[in-house]
Design brief:
Layout: H1 2-18, H2 29-36, H3 42-68, E1 71-72, H4 73-86, H5 93-120, H6 127-130, H7 135-140, H8 144-152, H9 155-178, E2 182-183, E3 186-187, H10 192-209, H11 221-224, H12 226-233, H13 236-251, E4 255-256, H14 259-266, H15 270-295, H16 305-312, H17 316-332, H18 334-343, H19 345-377, H20 381-395, H21 402-423
Parallel strand pairs: 1-4
Antiparallel strand pairs: 2-3
Helix pairs in contact: 1-4, 1-5, 1-13, 2-15, 3-4, 3-21, 4-5, 8-9, 8-10, 8-19, 9-10, 10-15, 10-19, 12-15, 13-16, 13-17, 14-15, 15-16, 15-18, 15-19, 16-17, 19-20, 19-21, 20-21
Pfam family, one: YhfT
Protein name: Membrane protein
InterPro entries: Uncharacterised_YhfT
Length: 426
């Protein structure tokens, strides 16, 4: 079932990209829109997709997938973006995209299983230390609402949000230790990161909704891009099938939608992973909705709520059905969401700030996690390598994205450790 789900996801996502219906990379959506409007040739579109997404697949998606032994959705859907947009959009190109996309999904899953088995035969199995890469991410992720508030509104409001978030987290820890909360004689344990995240998100959206539209500056998204919204809605059956499959695959613990929930899922913390996925989904709604409404090109994962469905569903079949329903509702409510974003420009503008805040948090957390993992593999030399790797990458103009430096560096240290062990100098 795991293989079937991943193969179908790869095939369908490649077809949606090939037909200019949906792409995963947020930065590609406006470019695909340019192609649809006739201002960009297909060949240029394919080359742009490769240039934007290939580095993220190799430097971001694959390392996380190997680290957790669970597919990070970026590693498959960034790849299907490339496959779908490079193949011609014609009677033979679309079936080829489906076949190659399905084969790519199969190769990703089978290759992952092969990697895990390969680690068992190494002189130094560094798979367990690699689990440290995601450990700081879970805690650091709760900071992103405060950072987004500071970026969009003011440093003072950002500091206030940060302090309240920290206080709420510590109160949750205190309540858990003292056993203050109980229901029917059973002690209730609060997830401290989840409580802190909720507090931060309340502050973020309170500030955003208080930001009023300046008179005469309104951009009527609902009417201006009504034809774009209709073009997305007519393809809703495709989104329902893909949304159901992704929710099902998430329920099977085959894949996750972001590094935070991926790390939690790898630790067996399914409810915490669902909560983290929910916070991310709520934060990304303004960004995904805005780009979709303006371009007529949707995301194959919608607002990412299908991952939340996958985590909290009791079984794979319920996840499949509810996932399809959720993404149907998302698509059909795009016009309502457009009007909401018109009414609250602060919420609309928060989309890019939320994305930037998450990126900055992940850059720091993953660098720390990578350093911890590398130091567990080779004490001392691991920290030396990660520090040098990060600085050289910066000086070289960041050929590897900052978020990937920690995971890639830790994998490199694991390989070096095995080479040293073979040579007998470790």
């Amino acid at each position: 079932m795991d293989i079937l789900f991943v193969v179908l996801i790869g095939a369908i996502a490649s077809v949606l990209a090939n037909l200019n219906i949906a792409v995963f990379n947020d930065g590609l959506r406006p470019i695909v829109g340019e192609h649809i409007d006739g201002r960009l040739k297909r060949r240029e579109l394919g080359l742009t997709a490769f240039a934007i997404s290939f580095g993220l697949v190799i430097g971001f998606g694959i390392p996380f997938t190997i680290t957790a032994s669970i597919i990070l959705i970026h590693s498959i859907l960034l790849g299907t973006d490339i496959i779908g947009l490079i193949t011609p959009k014609n009677k033979w190109g679309t079936p080829v995209a489906a076949a190659v996309g399905g084969l790519y999904g199969w190769g990703l899953l089978v290759g992952l299983e092969g990697f895990v088995k390969l680690f068992e035969y190494l002189p130094i199995n560094f798979l367990d230390p690699m689990g440290q890469v995601g450990t700081p991410v879970v805690v650091a992720f709760t900071v992103f609402p405060a950072l987004a508030v500071a970026m969009q509104f003011s440093i003072k409001k950002g500091i206030l949000t940060f302090l309240v978030t920290a206080l709420v987290r510590q109160l949750a820890v205190f309540f858990n230790e003292q056993g203050f909360l109980s229901l029917g004689g059973n002690t209730i344990t609060l997830n401290q990161e989840g409580m802190a995240l909720i507090a931060g998100m309340i502050f973020l959206f309170t500030f955003a909704m208080r930001e009023k539209q300046e008179e005469g500056s309104s951009v009527d998204l609902a009417s201006l891009f009504s034809d774009k919204v209709k073009s997305i809605q007519k393809n809703v059956p495709f989104f329902m099938i893909l949304g159901g499959l992704i929710a099902g695959a998430t329920n099977l613990a085959v894949m996750a939608g972001d590094p935070i929930s991926l790390s939690l899922l790898a630790e067996g913390k399914v409810s915490e992973a669902g909560l983290a996925a929910a916070a991310r989904a709520i934060g990304f709604v303004p960004l995904i909705a805005s780009t979709a409404i303006a371009t007529g090109v949707y995301s194959p994962v919608g607002f990412t709520l299908i991952f939340v469905v996958g985590f909290f569903s009791p079984n794979v079949w319920v996840a499949l059905i509810i996932g399809a329903i959720v993404i149907f509702l998302e698509v059909m409510l795009l016009g309502v969401i457009a009007r909401f974003l018109d009414k609250y420009p602060g919420v609309r503008n928060s989309g890019e700030n939320i994305r930037s805040a998450m990126t900055k948090i992940l850059e720091v957390a993953l660098l720390i996690g990578g350093a911890n993992a590398a130091n567990m593999i080779i004490p001392g030399l691991g920290l030396f390598f990660i520090a040098g790797f990060y600085l050289i990458n910066e000086i070289a103009g960041r050929p590897i994205v900052r978020m990937a430096v920690g995971p890639v560096g830790a994998i490199a240290v694991g390989i070096i450790a095995n080479i040293l062990a073979v040579l007998g100098i470790m």
